[in-house]
Amino acid sequence: MKFGLLIVTGPLFYKGWYHFFYQYNPHAAVWGDIVWGHAVSKDLIHWLHLPLAMVADQWYDKNGVWTGSATILPDGKVVMLYTGSTTENVQVQNLAYPADHSDPLLINWVKYSGNPVLVPPPGILDKDFRDPTTAWLTSEGKWRITIGSKINKTGIALVYDTKDFINYELLNGVLHAVPGTGMWECVDFFPVSKTEENGLDTSVNGPSVKHVVKASLDDDRHDYYSIGTYHEKNGTWIPDEPKIDVGIGLRYDYGIYYAAKTFYDQNKNRRVLWGWIGESDSEAADMQKGWASVQSIPRTILFDKKTGTHLLQWPVEEIESLRLKSYEFNQVKVQAGSVVPLDVGPATQLDIIAEFEIDKEALEKTTGSNVTFSCSSSGGTVERGALGPFGLLVLADDSLSEQTPVYFYIAKGSDGKVKTFFCNDQSRSSVASDVNKQIYGNLVPVLEGEKLSLRVLVDHSIVESFAQGGRTVITSRVYPTKAIYGAAKLFLFNNATEASVSASLRIWQMNSAFIRPYPNDKESQ
What dihedral angle (degrees, nearest 10) is formed by the CA atoms of 323, 328, 331, 335? Predict the structure, then answer.
């Protein structure tokens, strides 16, 4: 498929098919002329493209059919709320629904004749009112949604109740507000179970449930979340830990990952997260190649019962259907300052599961320091510490002139306490000059008795890395010129000065997913 962008909007499972709607520019590999593309899948892996679902053909969405959300009603019917940018560039909310609810492919959509159903309320600027969420039921039987906005520099989520998705009541106050975070877009709000290992329908509430608020911050283009308590009566949400409130604490992903959206998959009782992986090369390069942006591998999302503060993200189980030949490496010793090649053949499409153990004696003997560590400002893998960095070099060529390290760094404080960081170093990912070469990462909680574990999905120019079962996740978009196809290799490395590590790995070569037009005359109906 040519051109961009691929921001997920209105995902759902309906009559046996997963539906992926996305913001799409059919004319160029840059932002603009946004309409809704549409693809379907039986397994979230192999996708079939359908005709455009909605185009910008009404006064209320003439400047763009932007992000929306699907709600499945108790009778099984679907309603879609979406933001339109009007002929006057005012952001308004609109209602659409399938022309034929018996069509499992949901090919044709009807825009409600009375659109828009919501306009910016008093005190909200015309361009600060977008991205309605999936609706959830209140105990009074009303549907409730939240919409992102801001007042001055305070990011907010407005709350509306409705009985029919046409008439709305704005609740007093807001779902939540965080000063200094700027415009909240693509807000998401959903319950997670404190006890079960499965996802929950958006309307579920009760004592065994926590609620997540996620906002995409327009100011810094990152997705932040926080876990807390939802008070249905007044439509507010309070974070469990204000120090890690929305926009100032935890992120879904510490790499290039934005405008993410979840949906409840009633087919497998799970909550699935989609995220947009933008480009990090130049716009000129995007124009030259004729397309821009990809979607992440869908992830399941669960409450991390061990920390109580984090979510756990993990690739959907269906990705394992692409696994081909596997390789096992047990207790590979990697001495301080060394690199160990792993012979797995071409290393451009891999699923890697790895565990690392650091030499306990070195860990105990190492003197602590009051120097604070940060992945982004540390200088990457060339900056050596007593206890790190160590991990994997993916998408590397034989000479290591190109490499993308995915690694842990253990920092011991002067108080003797240990903190573990999980990082991706793009500084030598490509010899090309017009690409982003940031170092990504963050702290990852490692609890008593846990080994250091990671999973890495490598797909030519995308590296999705999951540490400690998905507590901390990093997506890198890299552009190797030498470490491509058969010339791409995989290495273990340990650039610590004092500690050796041992690594055990299982690695699969991965097949390609097929993505093609839907093979049916129905497209032309």
Answer: -80
